[in-house]
Design brief:
By secondary structure, the chain is mostly helical. Helix content is 64%, strand content 3%. It contains 16 helices and two strands. It has a two-stranded antiparallel ribbon with strand order 1-2. Helix 3 packs antiparallel against helix 4 and helix 13 packs across helix 15. The longest helix is centred in the last third of the chain and has 28 residues. The N terminus is likely disordered.
């Protein structure tokens, strides 16, 4: 395998550079664009660029990352396909006609993004060569892993700037509000994803809750202030509490009655607040009424009984609800800037349709998150452990085990007709 890669790499790299050099040499448009160029229809090539990069960075790259974390044999083929497709998408993004766009953060990142792409690609090829096993390779493995974990963040950021550029939002007037909504909305989505991740690995939610809320308050305090003197309304962005579930509810309550200039905006902010309040209530219910598995002890947990302890998935529904509602809240908040809602208002869309559309996207986004977590737990090095028999009872040399798809305690034997089964009582021996 190493020999094959050594043979093909010198041949492939010049070909790749012949594709990328025109991209680097592409001149970004400035302020000299005419109104006709700025408002021309979006051509098919640009739509293909958008769809292709959305699929690659939103699905294929994350799947490849998860397969890499699980040490799956499919990691390299999937990521190779993603790299090939993203190179094609980059070329299409600079070869389109139709509408022209002024120089933007999206266009600049589109050029600089080649640096981590080539770095990750080069590290991957180097690791497949299996050389310098005790010197350079251990550091290359760590660098490859760290860079790979940053891939979803990189794709999410560039995708957001792409949508902003396409829609022409977040100019000089609305830049501050865009920063507040997109940073905080992304924070809520990340918060929900972390909660979903903790469903799989388990951790202290309160620790994550406190960090997210503190950072949310610091950033939102200054990004939501649009200059001038501080007012009473600014306090709606700064009130904080140390109790995670309560502060989520209080923040939601404040946003549900956060007056806006446009009635549509007020309605969307209200739904954002209600979603946060539901997430906070789900979090409190999980904390107060769902016991931790290792703290659930009853009279049945003794050496003379096979009664099951608390199930490992106790409270999983409330955790899922909280995570999903946080993702939905983040998307609603990101879609509630003045520019976005003015455009929605001009299109004649009512707030119900708009909110339900955002919730539909949230469900799809959370579905992808859960799919990736499930893929990690059932692929690569985790596939065998998922199929191993689990010990369901063990005491004084007695052990009951079975495959994961069997009954938790026993599999009943077939009984012959006309013959009753013998009854055996577990307990201490007694003399007649």
């Amino acid at each position: 395998m190493a020999g094959d890669l050594s043979l093909w790499t010198p041949l492939l790299l010049p070909l790749v550079f012949t594709w990328i050099v025109p991209v680097l040499a592409h001149e970004h448009h400035g302020a000299d664009l005419t109104e006709e160029e700025l408002h021309a229809p979006v051509d098919a090539i640009l739509w293909i660029h958008i769809a292709l990069q959305a699929i690659v960075w939103g699905l294929i790259f994350p799947v490849g990352m998860v397969l890499g974390l699980a040490r799956s044999k499919w990691h390299v083929p999937v990521q190779s396909l993603a790299f090939a497709l993203t190179f094609g998408g980059i070329i299409l993004g600079h070869a389109h006609g139709g509408r022209k766009f002024p120089s933007s953060i999206h266009s600049h990142i589109g050029s600089w993004i080649l640096v981590p792409i080539f770095a990750q690609l080069g590290l991957g090829i180097y690791l497949k060569l299996h050389i310098h096993e005790r010197t350079i390779r251990p550091y290359a493995v760590r660098a490859h892993g760290i860079l790979g974990r940053l891939w979803p963040i990189l794709g999410w950021t560039q995708g957001l700037f792409g949508v902003i550029t396409l829609r022409g939002f977040c100019g000089e007037v609305g830049a501050g509000q865009c920063a507040a909504h997109y940073i905080m909305g992304s924070g809520f989505i990340a918060y929900g994803i972390i909660m979903a991740l903790l469903l799989a690995v388990g951790d202290n939610w309160e620790w994550w809750d406190s960090w997210v809320i503190m950072l949310w308050g610091i950033v939102n305090t200054f990004t939501e202030h649009h200059g001038g003197e501080w007012s009473v309304k600014d306090m709606q962005h700064t009130y904080r509490n140390v109790v995670p579930g309560v502060i989520i509810i209080l923040t939601g309550w404040a946003m549900s009655d956060h007056a806006q200039a446009l009635m549509l905006s007020t309605k969307v902010h209200s739904m954002f607040g209600y979603s946060l309040m539901l997430a906070g209530f789900a979090r409190i219910i999980e904390v107060c009424f769902v016991p931790l598995p290792h703290l659930h002890w009853t009279d049945n947990d003794s050496e003379h009984t096979l009664a099951p302890p608390a199930p490992k998935d106790a409270g999983i529904s409330t955790k899922i609800n909280a995570a999903l509602l946080l993702v939905a809240s983040g998307l609603l908040f990101m879609s509630a800037t003045d520019e976005e809602l003015n455009a929605v208002h001009e299109e004649g869309m009512d707030h119900v349709t708009y909110v339900l559309s955002m919730y539909s996207i949230a469900f799809l986004f959370y579905l992808l998150t859960v799919f990736l977590l499930h893929l990690y737990s059932t692929s690569g090095r985790n596939a065998l452990s998922a199929q191993q028999p689990s010990v369901v009872f063990s005491a004084e040399g007695i052990e009951l085990s079975g495959p994961t798809d069997a009954s938790k305690w026993y599999a009943p034997l077939a009984r012959e007709e006309g013959r009753s089964a013998a009854v055996h009582v577990l307990g201490e021996d007694e003399d007649d």
